[in-house]
Amino acid sequence: MSAIISASNVTKTFRQTKRLPGLGGAMASLFSRQFTEVKAVADISFAIAAGEAVGYLGPNGAGKSTMIKMMTGILVPSGGSLSVLGCEPHSHRMTNAAEIGVVFGQRSQLWWDLPVRDSFALHRHIYDIPQARFTDNLAFLATMLAMTDYLDRPVRQLSLGQRMRAEIAMALLHDPKILFLDEPTIGLDVVAKDAVRKFLAQINRERGTTIILTTHDLQDIEEICPRLIMVDDGRLLFDGELPRLRAALGSRRRLRLEFGSDPGLISLTTARLVTDGGLAKHFLLDSETTSILDVLTELGSGYDLKDVALEEPAIEEVIRTFYQQKPNLVTAP
Ligand SMILES: Nc1ncnc2c1ncn2[C@@H]1O[C@H](COP(=O)(O)OP(=O)(O)OP(=O)(O)O)[C@@H](O)[C@H]1O
């Protein structure tokens, strides 16, 4: 695999001012400041190939934004080596910027008082995009992201969903090879989220744009990113595909039993009842030790059983279990 992004033992340490409690502490820190060091990113290594779509996941404060900022050249690593499109991103900020697109869900890159179209025109000048390519890309993006109705409206008048689509379009106008997105669906309603996800999956698939995405919405990951990089406290905990994560953790499966008439409470030793919906009951079973047949044998034939289904745990449950257990699943890149 020839890597478009490679990180080797990357670290980032921040110095934070230590605040002593109370008013006295605040006064004291005016005269003598004390600092603590926070390792936002600790010894992270991975390699990403052109055309991949990777979800970068972790709880609040895990170091996701810091890593994105280093890959986009905004921050300099404190240690290790980082290469994006063959260059160290911070020292080659200008060349890096021409090849990447960046969307920060919480920070706009559009000009607030200008119509969307004018922000795009400024972007064309800054990135020196040839007119014909700009016109083609704008037509494509405006159609795909359903933006034609509001291209001439000032950004401040747009809804969050409209603005986010405009942010994504602007980040793609210069045909970047890599698109970095930091929480692109934050605050969007379900319809807007769906439109953004479908579009990102499409440009990854059809244009081969490499996507690196941080999000707290796990459906973003399920629909866009086959590969997950999971971090906590700055450290790498998992790098691989969702099925591997499911396989490593997912011995617990949900079994759904549906009855023609409510059998009342059912208590089994082979599976644990987790939700009782009367006619439909959900059980958890350990599929490493227990088969459906074991459960049905224990249940016996005295029930009006209509349907049996084994369900994969939802991605939310897999990720929650992962962060509770934090098993060592790291594979070297
Ligand atoms: N400029 C900074 N100066 C000092 N500390 C910082 C700075 N930026 C981030 N940190 C600290 O580094 C750690 C990682 O922060 P980061 O923003 O990368 O986390 P995150 O995973 O993106 O979190 P979230 O999901 O909440 O956005 C946190 O402890 C944060 O307080």
Describe this structure in words.
- With 333 residues, the chain is an alpha/beta fold.
- It has 2 domains: 3-246, Rossmann fold; 251-312.
- The chain contains 11 helices and 13 strands.
- The strands form 3 sheets. The chain has a 6-stranded mixed β-sheet, with helices on both faces. Strands 11-12-10-13 form a 4-stranded antiparallel β-sheet, with no helix packed on it. A 3-stranded antiparallel β-sheet has the order 2-1-4.
- Strand 6 (178-182), helix 7 and strand 7 (210-214) form a beta-alpha-beta unit.
- Helix 9 (242-249) packs across helix 11 (315-325).
- The longest helix is centred in the middle third of the chain and has 18 residues, at 190-207.
- The model has no long low-confidence stretch (mean pLDDT 89).
- Bound molecules: adenosine-5'-triphosphate.
- Adenosine-5'-triphosphate binds at residues 14, 16, 38, 40, 58, 60-66.
